[in-house]
Amino acid sequence: MTKEQLEAFRLAYAKSVKKCIKGKNKNGKNIAEQSDWVFFDRKLIQDLLDMTDPISGGLKLYFGQYDKENLDILPIDRKDRDDYIGRISIAIAAANKTEFGIIDLNDESKDSTTFKLSSGGSIENGGDLCPPGCNP
Fold first, then answer.
1. Which helix (H) or strand (E) holds 61?
2. Distant-in-sequence, close-in-space partners of 50: CB < 8 Å, separation ≥ 6
3. pLDDT tens-digit map of 29-64
4. Most buried residue, 4, 30, 49, 105, by CB count within 10 Å?
5. How are beta strands 57-65 and 88-98 bridged, if at all?
6. Alpha-carbon gap, residue 72 to 120, rounded angstroms
7. Considering the entire predicted model, what is its pTM?
8. Closest Cα to residue 9, out of 128, 114, 92?
9. 117, exposed or middle or buried, with CB in 10 Å at 0-12, 13-18, 19+?
10. Residues 6+ apart with CB under 8 A from 18
11. Distance from first CA to last CA of the chain, Å, rounded?
């Protein structure tokens, strides 16, 4: 997830849910019940943590919302991908606590190759979301 994609994801959230305006689903109807949880696997979390300082590092969690304009941040082969439209989710950023505040590694590094995951950065998105993918 790029910094620009993160901003678009957060903006969709700020325009609706953060202001208590219901998200709209793929058919333009209000989401009656919002997201319950998001699952990220251990490897992704560990890979992000491994990028951070062992003492001052951690993870910053950003709230966001999927809409038709930012749905491309989800894998194209994701089952029920369109059902994520209007749903709240979380993006995770590797971050370090500094004298200037808690700084995402993408903001800290001038060398864009220093902090890279397979998706291309130190910010990750695309966890399994409930709904639509709730366990029985």
1. strand 57-65
2. none
3. 998 888 889 999 999 999 999 999 999 999 999 999
4. 105
5. antiparallel
6. 14
7. 0.77
8. 92
9. middle
10. 63
11. 30
